[in-house]
Amino acid sequence: MAGRLEGKVIVILGASDERSMGASAAQRCQAEGAKLVLAARRLDRVQAIADSLGTLAIGCDITDEQQLAGLADAAVSHYGKLDGAINFAGIETSSPIADISREVLQENCDVHLIGTTLFIKQMAARMTDGGSVVTTSSQTALLAPPGLAAYAGTKAGADHIVRIAAVEYGAQNIRVNSL
């Protein structure tokens, strides 16, 4: 019996720890029949997970657009197409606004806001027959948690970008969602 993702090619970014949401999603997608490309900043960590699933691993930093393009290209080169992409990449820093540094703000913007936008752009550009791009958010994007201004603020911004991307890519039969 074929799974719901039988024959689909899916990129998962942020699968560098066996207990991560990315690794869990990879296991579930593979169980449903998907062909996978797993990626994370640290190739050695994602390689172990990819090896356990018998799939392709790529080192990719979400803050580097060329690496994101290379990730999407690797999926198309290896499997001939790209149907889906899931972004689990993220960082979490905690600091009250009174103590926050520009570096912490910039790092959160680079990963959650800019990185998410470029991830959507690069993955959708290779989805020639439609597809789905999913990025992860956080409940903190809807709340006002003390000490999480950089994290929650950039997650909220990314959620809004996802809404815009859903409208822009909808005509190409590409769904863009945040969970």
Characterization of this structure:
The chain has 179 residues and is α/β, with parallel strands linked by helices. The chain has helices at residues 21-31, 43-53, 65-79, 102-125, 149-170; strands spanning 9-13, 35-40, 56-59, 84-87, 131-135, 174-178. A six-stranded parallel β-sheet has the order 3-2-1-4-5-6, sandwiched between helices. Strand 5, helix 5 (149-170) and strand 6 form a beta-alpha-beta unit. It is globular, with a radius of gyration of 16 Å.
Tag the structure with descriptive keywords.
six-stranded parallel β-sheet, alpha/beta, 179 residues, 16% strand, 6 strands
The chain-level structural class is: alpha/beta
Q: Helical amount among residues, as a percent range? A: 40-55%
Sequence of strands across the biggest β-sheet: 3-2-1-4-5-6
SSE pattern, N- to C-terminal? EHEHEHEHEHE
What is the C-alpha radius of gyration, as a whole number of Å? Answer: 16 Å
What would you call the shape? globular
Q: How do the helices and strands line up, and which of them pair or pack?
A:
Layout: E1 9-13, H1 21-31, E2 35-40, H2 43-53, E3 56-59, H3 65-79, E4 84-87, H4 102-125, E5 131-135, H5 149-170, E6 174-178
Parallel strand pairs: 1-2, 1-4, 2-3, 4-5, 5-6
